UniProtKB/TrEMBL annotation:
Entry protein name: Bifunctional protein GlmU
Residues at which Mg(2+) binds: D100, N222
Catalytic activity, as annotated: alpha-D-glucosamine 1-phosphate + acetyl-CoA = N-acetyl-alpha-D-glucosamine 1-phosphate + CoA + H(+); N-acetyl-alpha-D-glucosamine 1-phosphate + UTP + H(+) = UDP-N-acetyl-alpha-D-glucosamine + diphosphate
Reported cofactor(s): Mg(2+)
Localisation: Cytoplasm
Summary of subunit composition and partner proteins: Homotrimer.
Domain of life: Bacteria
Domain MobA-like NTP transferase: from-to ranges: 4-119
Keyword set, alphabetical order: Acyltransferase, Cell shape, Cell wall biogenesis/degradation, Cytoplasm, Magnesium, Metal-binding, Multifunctional enzyme, Nucleotidyltransferase, Peptidoglycan synthesis, Repeat, Transferase
Originating species: Dechloromonas agitata
Lineage, opening ranks: Bacteria, Pseudomonadati, Pseudomonadota, Betaproteobacteria, Rhodocyclales
NCBIfam families: glmU
Cofactor note: Binds 1 Mg(2+) ion per subunit.
Ligand binding (UDP-N-acetyl-alpha-D-glucosamine): 6-9, 20, 71, 76-77, 98-100, 134, 149, 164, 222, 328, 346, 361, 372
Gene: glmU
Length: 452
């Protein structure tokens, strides 16, 4: 079996410099959805027909298992498939997909291929409003005889509500000859792929149809309006999958998954969260409202409060995070770590039961167990040219508003007094304070405004 994906169209109505098939649904180009679905059918050949924005399309979708066919001029869907035909061989079926129809399921395509096993098959759908689509014309016995395009249809044919989705399975052995016979003497002056149906019928080959389970599977994108509609449909589908799998969603209409979200049991997700890349949520993880998690692994039982932003981080079990926490790339938190409001952590490891609950910056640090990082603590990791490491050993207590000028080490069990600016290592089990001694000046007067 071969798959040909048509992706040469410009998409004028997108009003964009980006070729249509590269516009994203769930953070992934439309055509990439189609390619990923195609791969799951394990084709011998996977060919993308490209034209508009050729080089960008190729470089964005590039992969070892994709072959390319250029269609320099868009002369119709039949002409588009003809550009790929020399790469197809002569055996099996050729499945034609559209690069701007992203949500067709593998199951539907398998049923279509099955229906076309001994002939040709077309994926069709009944629409309340069939305007603009090719109509499926059947004979008195109900057998499909041809597809007629809207612009070429009679009034009678226009009343037909069963339409061509464009997705077809064609016997590869016949394809080249049929495409060679196509003429463009129609209303649009194009070489219609759809005309091969009548050719198959004329040869007495069985022509069958299959239908998708949901209409959204065959919806294409021609405008930003349709792009937005399909995004919501796709997100709703993903949300339903999560619900079915046992995730509690405060509102299935208010979640966005732009990647792979995996989860354990009894996970709950509040409204407005965005999951990007690969996100893993362990058992009983709670994600509060309006969090953004990108490439994050969260251990079981961790609670994330509202408005957190985490990227490329690993979070241990039973953590307590946020609200307003930011974890940047390279953050690794052990079990039962607390990261509170307005705390930023970057490229740092924080071991079990340590806490930084308020207003801190922890960058390029290694923090041991049971450490308490006071409010306003800052690791001064950058000297303007290079980054340096801060090491804080187990059971350290860091007073509020402390600066740790890296490279620096705080020994096990040490205490740093509030307001300390630490420029040298602090010895273990000792109080280190760097601030000036407190003075109280009796009789000191506040300055007075000078009267003019
Ligand atoms: C096509 C079908 C129509 C069907 C409809 C479903 C034909 C003649 N008509 O019509 O029966 O109901 O799709 O949406 O096939 N493309 C190319 N090169 C071309 C022309 C098109 O790559 O020269 C690609 C487009 O990028 C798009 C797809 O093929 O992905 C369909 O093209 P489009 O112009 O939208 O076809 P329609 O006229 O809508
Ligand atoms: Ca179309």
């Amino acid at each position: 079996m071969n798959i040909v994906i048509l992706a040469a169209g410009q998409g004028k109505r997108m009003h964009s410099n980006l070729p249509k098939v590269l516009h994203p649904i769930a953070g992934k180009p439309l055509a990439q959805h189609v390619i990923d679905t195609a791969r799951r059918l394990d084709p011998e050949k996977l060919i993308v027909v490209y034209g508009h924005g050729g080089e960008i399309v190729r470089s964005m979708l590039q992969a070892d298992d994709i072959a390319w066919a250029e269609q320099a001029q868009q002369l119709g869907t039949g002409h588009a498939v003809a550009q790929a035909v020399s790469q197809l061989g002569t055996a099996g079926q050729t499945l034609v997909l559209y690069g701007d129809v992203p949500l067709t399921t593998v199951n539907t395509l398998k049923r279509l291929l099955q229906a076309g096993k001994d002939g040709l098959s077309v994926l069709t759908v009944n629409l309340d409003n069939p305007t603009g689509y090719g109509r499926i014309v059947r004979d008195a016995a109900g057998n499909m005889v041809s597809i007629v395009e809207e612009k070429d249809a009679t009034t009678e044919q226009k009343a037909i509500r069963e339409v061509n989705t464009g997705i077809m399975a064609i016997p590869t052995a016949r394809l080249g000859e049929w495409l060679g016979k196509l003429k463009n003497d129609n209303a649009q002056g194009e070489y219609y792929l759809t005309d091969i149906v009548a050719l198959a019928v004329a040869e007495g080959l069985p022509v069958r149809t299959a239908q998708p389970e949901g209409e959204w599977e065959v919806l294409g994108v021609n405008s930003k309006v349709q792009l937005a509609e399909l995004e919501r449909q796709h997100q709703r589908n993903l949300a339903d999958q999560l619900l079915v799998a046992g995730v509690r969603l405060a509102d299935p209409a208010r979640i966005d998954v732009r990647g792979e979200l995996s989860h354990g049991r009894d996970v709950s997700i509040d409204v407005g969260c965005v999951f990007e890349g690969k996100v893993e949520l362990g058992d009983a993880v709670e994600v509060g409202p309006y969090c953004v998690l990108k490439n994050v692994k969260v251990g079981a039982g961790t609670r994330i409060a509202a408005f957190c932003h985490f990227e490329d981080a690993v979070i241990g079990p039973d953590g307590v995070l946020g609200p307003y926490a930011r974890l940047r790339p390279g953050t690794e938190l052990g079990p039962e770590v607390h990261i509170g409001n307005f705390v930023e952590v970057k490229k740092s490891r924080i071991a079990a039961q340590s806490k930084a609950n308020h207003l801190a910056y922890i960058g390029d640090a290694e923090i041991g167990q049971r450490v308490n990082v006071g409010a306003g603590t800052i690791t001064c990791n950058y000297d303007g040219a290079n980054k340096h490491l801060t090491v804080i050993e187990d059971d350290v207590f860091i007073g509020s508003d402390t600066q740790l000028v890296a490279p620096v080490r705080v020994g096990r069990g040490a205490t740093l007094g509030a307001g300390t600016t630490l420029t040298k290592d602090a010895p273990p089990e000792t109080l280190t304070v760097s601030r000036a001694k407190q003075l109280s000046l009796a009789g000191w007067q506040r300055p007075q405004k000078v009267k003019k």
